[in-house]
Amino acid sequence: MTQVFNFSAGPAMISKPVLEKAQSELLNWLGQGTSVMEVSHRGKLFMEMITECDKDLRQLFNVPDNYKILFLQGGARGQFAAVPMNLIGAKGKALYLNSGHWSGMAAKEARNFCELDEISIVDKDENGVISVNRTDFSDIAEQYDYVHYCTNETITGVQIKEIPKVGNAVLVADMSSDIMSKPVDISKFGLIYAGAQKNLGPAGITLVIVREDLIGHACQATPSIWNYETQANSDSMINTPPTFAWYLCALVFKQMLAEGGLEIYAKRNEKKAALLYSYLEQSQFYRNYIAVANRSVMNVTFSTDNDELNAKFVAEAAEAGLQALKGHKVLGGMRASIYNAMPIEGVEALIAFMKKFEAENA
């Protein structure tokens, strides 16, 4: 069988050692003779596992002591609603920075729960190249209860690598597609959230890291499942959590620590992205439409500028074991998602295929 590399934007690859560990424990977790999916989520062993998971994540991501870590359900879309329900306060208004599809969707959902201003922070030049035009909002941010942005737009492949300046305002980040791909100064954020299915584990569980002083101010109509205070007081378990997804995230954190932590992963990710972008830059056949300063390290988008050739590329790549390279329906073209679990061999195999396809179709 041809070796398969999965370039899906999510659910995405999970590293082989993690999957092998889960496989070995699937029928007999910790000598219990049952799967982790079958034990009580309030039992001693599961509670010990989630306590260790919290500890490992704090060490790995350098989460300060005055932040709560929650593992919730509903994906990032759930947090599109939960954030305004929990954080809108005396000022009565939020600021949303729009850099693409997902930040725009977050603003659209938040309008159901609060008043907000929305500012586009990207430009497209005459050649179709997209760039981020502004990251300093310190002159206006403090009139809002919080400022929200998406660190990495998976559809276009735009990444905001500079943390926006917001003065003393609360900064909220949707980090779903680049969380834990590199070290981050958590203290600059009031709240970070991320769907797990890119870098953390499988779909079905969502990470929320929230500063403690922001907890306990939810509006009265907030459902208990979206109330950060209720969830924090219940160990993220006011209902039965997705236990297997939580367990897999815990295995991912263990694996990342064993491999040297986020500094190591950041170097790997930069190397993978640089390799692929370097090839795209010298090719006359493929185009990437993101300004160099804003090119995503996680999601590399490209196109032949011909829909028929794009479709042929995706089909032939899949036959060669390079899966899920079709771009999002909003944008088209191709997209290679090269999250933490993608080995550099996958990127090398993709480039080799791209060269072959270019030679045969240029």
TrEMBL record:
GO terms for cellular component: cytoplasm. It holds the Pfam family Aminotran_5. Its cofactor is pyridoxal 5'-phosphate. GO terms for biological process: L-serine biosynthetic process; pyridoxine biosynthetic process. PROSITE patterns: AA_TRANSFER_CLASS_5 (PS00595). Residues 4-350 form the Aminotransferase class V domain. One of its GO terms (molecular function) is pyridoxal phosphate binding. Pathway: Amino-acid biosynthesis; L-serine biosynthesis; L-serine from 3-phospho-D-glycerate: step 2/3; Cofactor biosynthesis; pyridoxine 5'-phosphate biosynthesis; pyridoxine 5'-phosphate from D-erythrose 4-phosphate: step 3/5. It is an enzyme of class 2 (transferase). The keyword GTP-binding does not apply. PANTHER family: PHOSPHOSERINE AMINOTRANSFERASE. Homodimer. Belongs to the class-V pyridoxal-phosphate-dependent aminotransferase family. SerC subfamily. This is Phosphoserine aminotransferase. It comes from Alitibacter langaaensis DSM 22999. The gene is serC.
